[in-house]
Amino acid sequence: MKKVIFFALFFFAGFYMPVNAQELKSTFLFDLEISTHPPQAVGRVLTGTRLIFPFKAGVVKGDKINGQIIDGGGEWGLMTDSTTFKMDSRATIRTDDGALIYIAYTGYNYADGPASALLRMGKGSELSPAEYYFRSTPVFETSAPKYAWLNHTVAVGVGRFAAPGKIVYRIYAIQ
């Protein structure tokens, strides 16, 4: 019986010990402004409705990173239902000092009711960012020593629709 009580106490203590995780903090990395060409509507596919938005131009502005989005990037998005758009974007940043940084991000745009209808019509800029959810999780790859720290940085982007065909993200590094 003593062994059963010992194992019960040991088991209980193991599951109810306080967790001392680090506090989640963030720091501003950069603002990313992207202009897109009109969408290429692939249409209904197995998992939703595929829309491709080729990037026309883009600017990166921040304390540590400044540059341009170069040709070839885009968003291969998927409308999973009438309220949710799943992002799948890739692009290359050419920094002002000539380094290349690959950026890829996924995330979601979500709104319901009238806000959802406006987003589906491409009129997101008529909404306040408080009326929709627009978050992304960028990852980076670069061989440039100056920016190598990005290769192991977890980031979150908070987006908004600035104008028709123009998206703005504020990108934060998670500490």
Task: Outline the structure in words.
With 175 residues, the chain is mainly β. The chain contains two helices and ten strands. The protein has helices spanning 2-15, 113-120, and strands at 26-36, 40-45, 48-61, 67-69, 74-79, 84-95, 100-110, 133-141, 155-163, 166-174. Strands 1, 2, 3, 4, 5, 6, 7, 8, 9 and 10 form a ten-stranded antiparallel β-sheet that branches. The longest helix is centred in the first third of the chain and has 14 residues, at 2-15. The radius of gyration is 21 Å and the shape is globular. The mean pLDDT is 91.
Report, as a whole number of angstroms, the end-to-end distance. 48 Å
- In angstroms, what is the radius of gyration? 21 Å
What portion of residues is helical? 10-25%
**Alpha-beta content class:** mainly beta
Shape descriptor: globular
Question: What are the low-pLDDT stretches, counting only 5+ consecutive residues below 50?
Answer: none
Give the biggest beta sheet: 10 strands, antiparallel
Write the topology of this structure.
Elements: H1 2-15, E1 26-36, E2 40-45, E3 48-61, E4 67-69, E5 74-79, E6 84-95, E7 100-110, H2 113-120, E8 133-141, E9 155-163, E10 166-174
Antiparallel strand pairs: 1-3, 1-10, 2-3, 3-4, 3-5, 4-6, 5-6, 6-7, 7-8, 8-9, 9-10
